[in-house]
Amino acid sequence: MKTLKHLVAAVAALSILTSCSVLKGLTSSAASAGSNTGSAIAAIYNIFKSTGGIDLNNITTLVNLGKILSGAKSLTGATEAFTSDFTSGLISGSSNLVNSANVASVLSGLKSLANINTSAITKATSAYSANGTAPALTNSTEGVSATVSALTKLMKAL
Q: DSSP alpha helices (H): ranges in 52-140?
């Protein structure tokens, strides 16, 4: 009888957990992160198309790169479910610039970005957010050359 009560309690707890917004919140955060990343990719892609390159001294590029790096970091060690929800958000956030034909390449590019030391870029993004100005970034700034290379590869995948 005691075992039956515990079993009933476990089933009830599981049904409450799966029907409430706790699990939906996790899904929403992955989709939201993907959507923010997708919109930032689309914004940088438009600049990339018009200028032919990545200029990290362009404030719009720098701010959007901060969003992309945040999304890339969220994929580190992510579960399959998180990645799936992130991907859905990525596609919708980019207004289908990222699509089923190129999503694998984009995810690979994001994972490459997550493995680069981007602390100097993150500091520049934070400085801009705090006071409206950012320090100049050059190819000799740690992580910049590798980031530009990875981001250029990602843009060419689109």
A: 59-74, 80-93, 103-114, 119-131
Which amino acid belongs to residue 158?
L
> What integer pLDDT is reported at residue 146 of this predicted model?
87
What H or E segment, with its residue span, contains residue 150? helix 144-156
Nearest Cα to 139, choosing from 54, 27, 16? 54
CA distance 122 to 114: 12
Residue 100 has pLDDT above 90, yes or no: yes
Domain spans of the chain, in order of start: 2-156
The residue behind tokens 């989709």 is 31
Q: How far is CA 139 from CA 25, 26, 56, 60, 148, in A?
A: 40, 38, 10, 18, 9
Element (H, E) at 36: helix 21-51
Q: What CA–CA distance (Å, rounded) separates 36 from 67?
A: 7
What's the token pair of residue 35?
């959507």
71 touches 34 (CB < 8 A): yes
